[in-house]
Each structure stands twice: as C-alpha cells, then as structure tokens.
Amino acid sequence: MTIADEINKVIRTIRTSGESHQVVLDRTFDTDIADLWDACTSPERLARWFEPTLGDLAPGGRYTLTRSSTQGDILTCEPPRHLAITWEYQGDVSHVDVELLAATNQRTALRLTHHCPPGDHWDTYGPTAAGVGWEESLRALGLHLAGDARSAPDEMDSVASTPEGRELTRRAAEAWGRADEAAGTPANEAEARALRTAAFHLST
What we know:
This protein is of the alpha+beta class and about 200 residues long. The protein has one domain (about 5-204): Alpha-D-Glucose-1,6-Bisphosphate, Chain A, domain 4 (2-Layer Sandwich), CATH 3.30.530.20. Helices cover about 45% and strands about 30% of the residues. The chain has helices spanning about 5-10, 35-40, 45-50, 120-125, 130-145, 155-160, 165-180, 185-204, and strands at about 10-15, 20-30, 55, 60-65, 70-80, 80-90, 90-100, 110-115. It has an 8-stranded antiparallel β-sheet with strand order 1-2-8-7-6-5-4-3. The longest helix is centred in the C-terminal third of the chain and has 20 residues, at about 165-180.
C-alpha cells in the first residue's frame, strides 16, 4: 500500500454550524457493519487499535481513555449505526459522532464528525489537528480489521517515526490544508495551519 493510497482512502470535509466547526472524515472498510461496530465499541478491541478504555459504554455512562486521559459522556449509542460522545481533553470539551452505513460486498462506510469549538486552538491549527489525529486512528482501525498487529498503539507510534510514517503525516496535513482552503479559509492561512500541525506531530 502506497502513501498515496492511504491518503486517498479518506474523504475530508469541513463544515461550520453556528459556532461549531465540524471536521468530517469518511472512509470505507472491508468488513460488515456488525464487525465494524464491535471494533469501535468493544473495550477489548479498542485496546488493540485505539486506546484502553474504561467505563460504562451505554447512554448516560462515562468513559476514560487510559493512554491519553481523554474522557467524556456517552450521549447516543444505537447499535450498529450511531455513537455520539463528548470529548474532554486538557480542559477542552467537544463532541464526536460516529455513523456507520452498510455498503455493498461486505463493506461498511464510516463517517466520523468531530464538532470543534472556536478558540485559540482552532485559530492556530484549524481542522488539521483533529483531522490528522483521527486519520491515524482510522488507519490503525483498518490494520486491525485486516488482522495486522501493527494496529497496536505502540506499533503505530513506532511506524509514525519512520521516514514513510513522517511523510504520511506531512501528506495528510497538506490534504487537510487543502480541505481547509476549500471550506473558505484563505490559502495562506490554511497552509500555515497545516504546516503548524505537521510540525507539531513531527516533533513528538
């Protein structure tokens, strides 16, 4: 699989609704909707590609991601199609929606929408910060569904530090910069926000 193939697997869209900026990722996976839902909601499977997860994964419950200390509320859980949560990280609160739609030939479309509030973080990094981060997570999910052990969080961190991984981060940031511009951000500002995000990821 080439870097271009990975970049082209994701459709990137930015929308604005009221004061919320919506960072939208669409990607189709080679599995049925029940399996994809299980991979996105089972604590045992989440630990294999995303993060170890604790809590009550039911409407009204709370969850904690133990690796990043992200936590939040379960707002909606409608198997196997819709999960909505709050995303509470370092004092900021946003919302994430995951929607699944069965496609043809045992394939399933996933749409992830991160509702980002306005503020200094958005002004500095725009949609690229959320976009690049979620894109890496969806890449790990794809590996997990294919039975590839490189989906494990520590393995993904190692891959990200290789020349190929660093190039993939740069290319993903550039793609989000183009989506930012397509959503109406001036070209120089969209490029600057994408470059800041890439620099942040490549420095860690």
